[in-house]
Write a structure and sequence with these properties.
The chain is mainly β. 8% of the residues lie in helices and 36% in strands. The chain has three helices and 16 strands. Strands 1-2-3-7-6-5 form a six-stranded antiparallel barrel. The protein has a six-stranded antiparallel β-barrel with strand order 9-10-11-16-13-12. Strand 5 and strand 6 form a beta hairpin. The radius of gyration is 17 Å and the shape is globular.
Length: 291
């Protein structure tokens, strides 16, 4: 997770926009960033132009309007962010939130990063900080309504596990900033405070995300699809504490990488949503933690 937004702002002033690690805007929370792309573009073989279209700004974090590969135009749209960005506060270790009413609003951005609309949630479809750090909101608008009104398509979640070395962009709707780097590798277990996340994405050092980027989509440059959601980084070099996650390998060896930032994979979300974008944690292939 990341430092408070006030601290992040201070870091920007004294060190410049690229100096501090990524984090959520409020008190203690992980970071994130994302970039948008239409469903049609995502299917094209050419390298995608990653911009802000489809990303959103939350009150304390970043996020994006997302679709599953099989989502349809008349399905209620979904917004992806971090579990630690929930308006109800950070879930405790082991806690899973499902189908909880919400009226949270999101500022929808166009390709230039201009806010063009306010979208509203009908519920928190899913939220947790166990094994992963994710929140998925269901909106009162459909994909077709958003496309028709604002000309903006949802980002598509990739159904496949990401690959090391992949060129990526982390797109922050909160800061209206895009970070460019590569997937450096994967972490067997990433521990931060009382939370443990499995098979996390580690960035190369160029993605030096800051507070408020929590929840940003991580976009594969070649496909334009979302492969992860930005969530945290080690700020001060401490080991396994809040804002200082540590890596733990399968043999239990702990590694601390100060200044390195991380994301949580999103491919495992895809099997858990079925017809009409309904969450079903009993579906075949769904491995998300259950309540």
């Amino acid at each position: 997770m990341r430092k408070p937004l006030v601290a992040a702002l201070f870091a920007l002033v004294i060190a410049g926009a690229g100096a501090a690690p990524a984090v959520a805007a409020p008190a203690t929370q992980p970071k994130s960033v994302t970039a948008p792309v239409s469903a049609e573009s995502a299917a094209a073989p050419a390298i995608q132009a990653v911009d802000f279209a489809g990303t959103v700004a939350l009150s304390n974090c970043s996020g994006s309007v997302v679709r599953m590969p099989a989502s349809e135009a008349d399905d209620p749209a979904l917004v992806l962010s971090n579990g630690h960005c929930l308006e109800t506060g950070m879930p405790t270790a082991g806690q899973v939130i499902v189908d909880r009413a919400s009226t949270r609003t999101f500022g929808l951005l166009n390709s230039a990063g201009t806010r063009v609309a306010t979208l509203r949630a009908s519920k928190i479809a899913y939220g947790t900080m166990t094994d992963t750090d994710v929140s998925i909101y269901q909106l009162t608008s459909t994909y077709a309504q958003i496309q028709s009104s604002y000309g903006i398509s949802a980002l598509t979640l990739d159904a496949a596990h990401p690959t090391a070395g992949t060129a990526i962009k982390v797109v922050s709707g909160y800061w209206k900033r895009i970070y460019t780097c590569n997937i450096d590798g994967f972490v067997y277990r990433l521990k931060e405070g009382s939370w443990t996340w499995k098979d996390s994405v580690r960035y190369t050092s160029a993605c030096n995300t800051i507070g408020g980027t929590s929840g940003s989509p991580v976009i594969d440059n070649a496909t334009g699809k979302v492969v992860a959601v930005n969530n945290t980084g080690n700020e001060s070099g401490a080991s396994c504490t809040v804002n200082n996650p540590c890596e733990v390998d399968a043999s239990g060896t702990v590694t601390v990488r100060q200044g390195i930032n991380y994301a949580q994979e999103t491919y495992q979300i895809v099997p858990c949503f079925g017809l009409d974008n309904k969450l079903d944690l009993t579906r075949s292939g769904c491995t998300l933690p259950k309540p």
